[in-house]
Amino acid sequence: MRVLSITSEAIPLIKTGGLADVAGALPKALNEHDVDMRVLLPAYNTLRPLMDKANLLWKTKSCLGYEVRAFALVKDGIQFLLLDCPALYDREGGIYNDGEGADYVDNHMRFAVLSMAAAMIVEEGLSDGWQADILHAHDWQAGLAPTYLKLRGKCKVPSVLTIHNIAFQGWVSADALQQLDLPAEEFHAGSLEYWGQLSTLKAGLVFADAITTVSPTYAGEIKTPEFGMGLEGVLNNRSRDLTGILNGVDDVWSPAKSDDFLPYDVKSLGNKAKNRTALLKEFSLPKMDGPLAIVVSRLTDQKGIDLLIDALPSYFARRGGLCLLGSGAPDLEIALHQLRAKFPDQFGLRIGYDEALSKRMFAGADAVLVPSRFEPCGLTQLYGLRFGTLPVVANTGGLADTVINANTAALQKKTATGIVMTRIDTAALMEALNSLIDIYAQKRVWKTMQKNAMIQVVDWSESARVYYKIYSDILNTD
Are 327 and 355 in contact (CB under 8 A)? Predict the structure, then answer.
């Protein structure tokens, strides 16, 4: 089975968030099911040097008015197709914005060209003879790929659209219909029209043959007004075609092998204690008796960082510690710096992104805090489980699906793997942090929870099986 995956980012080539981790992990996971997946993404400025040793496999002089080419290369066992269009992708800023935080004004065209190229590659095949059986689009950036494929009607290849975060919908003015080569007769509420505008995500939801999202709970949540962000009506209409499939964690995130910290497993948790000492030193914090928690996150209200800032003083008063790595909203960064100044012996802060440091943080910390207001799946808590760094999470989305709360029954049965907030507000987070401190003081209970967490299956095996079934089902549907 041959699948063309369309994404705006994928490890190990380019990453700004969890989408890249998933898009880069799926090809390897599905290979176990004899799926030959190729990953199409733009040839951004930083990726252009890779094309020197890549093979040209497809080109056209007319992709929404642009001349584009697709170059094939293999990286870490993944077959990539880099879409070359310098006018759209060869820019000095970020992949979505200019480096100052402002989105590129032509993002709708940048990713429409990616989507149209995907549809054309599916229709025509590649010069090496490869022909896709399935098109798999990820998020709003690829939302028009199923749309073009269906509306052009040149082949009957089915498509899947995966929603990684419904909050990002690819809005663009209705005036762009002609520019995007979308038929005016499809601009109505049952098709492309979205509150007087276009939404590339909605377009994909309407025209894809199957829709997936990244956890079972989130699949239910996005059909409600609270979480659907205006698309709950479309998703309820497509409810039979919507499946929630948990993301997984690949072996890149493992405590058992690393050059960055002392490796450990369930039987050698002593090394985790040594990593804790090293982590305190790296963040210039003294030895502490209370739990050492971490936060590795974008700094946004979605992630509950404002709740965290309000709740931390009481946690510090009980001698808890925290190391935080992230970047985001300027007001939250300022507030965190101010909090760090008040608690210099308990709070270590790094603004930025550093994947090697984040792995050392998981290897050395006792707990990881994820108080998100909504979380489609979340990879952070999965890393926490694998590293025996107990997750303290909100009761939403994939967080609710993956963490077993340390309530009385779970503690008695010795099945708990973390702490789940009963509500998503400051008071509930304070209660969860108090529970963290109380349970951490019970060393036998804590070690049992650590071992429970580390034996949880958080890899891609089951999720890959479900993706394969969805592919098979839509291939066998007339």
Answer: no
Instruction: Reply yes or no on whether the pLDDT at 189 is more than 80.
Output: yes
**What's the burial of 116, exposed, middle or buried (CB within 10 Å: 0-12/13-18/19+)?**
buried
- Reported as a single tens digit per residue, the pLDDT across 108-151 is 999 999 999 999 999 999 999 999 999 999 999 999 999 999 99
Angle at the Cα of 171 from the Cα atoms of 169 and 172, rounded to 5 degrees: 155
The three-class DSSP label of residue 30 is: helix
Task: Look at residue 401 and tell me whether its pLDDT is greater than 70.
Answer: yes
Integer Cα distance of 308 and 297 in angstroms: 12
pLDDT tens across 348-399, in order?
999 998 989 999 999 999 999 999 999 999 999 999 999 999 999 999 999 9
**CB neighbourhood size of 1 (10 A):** 15
298 CB neighbour count, 10 Å cutoff: 16
* Cβ atoms of residues 100 and 441 within 8 Å: no
Is the pLDDT confidence value at 417 over 80?
Answer: yes
Alpha carbons 56 and 53: distance in angstroms, whole number: 10
Report the distance separating Cα 222 and Cα 210, nearest Å: 16
Preceding amide of 12 cis, omega within 30? yes
pLDDT at 466 over 60: yes
Rounded Cα distance, 173 and 177, in Å: 8
Element (H, E) at 20: helix 18-31
Tens of pLDDT, residue by residue over 280-293, are 999 999 999 999 99
Q: What is the distance between the alpha carbons of residues 364 and 231, in angstroms, rounded to a whole number?
A: 41
336-362 tens-digit pLDDT: 999 999 999 999 999 998 989 999 999
Cα 452 → chain centroid: 24
Residues 304 and 67: their CA atoms lie apart, in Å, by: 43
Query: What phi and psi values does residue 465 have, to the nearest 5 degrees?
Result: -60, -40
Closest to 73 (Cα-Cα) out of 33, 28, 121, 39: 39
Beta strands in 237-291 (DSSP E): 242-244
Task: Give the three-state DSSP class for 365.
Answer: coil
- Mean pLDDT across the stretch 316-338? 97
CA angle 61, 64, 65 (to 5 degrees): 55
Would you state the structure tokens that stand for residue 324, as one six-digit string? 């935080």
Closest CA to 143 of 185, 194, 105, 88: 194
Q: At what angle do helices 443-454 and 426-440 cross, to 10 degrees?
A: 110
11 with 139: CB under 8 angstroms?
Answer: no
CA angle in degrees (0–180, nearest 5) for 162-473-210: 25
Q: What backbone phi and psi angles, to 5 degrees, belong to 343? A: -130, 60
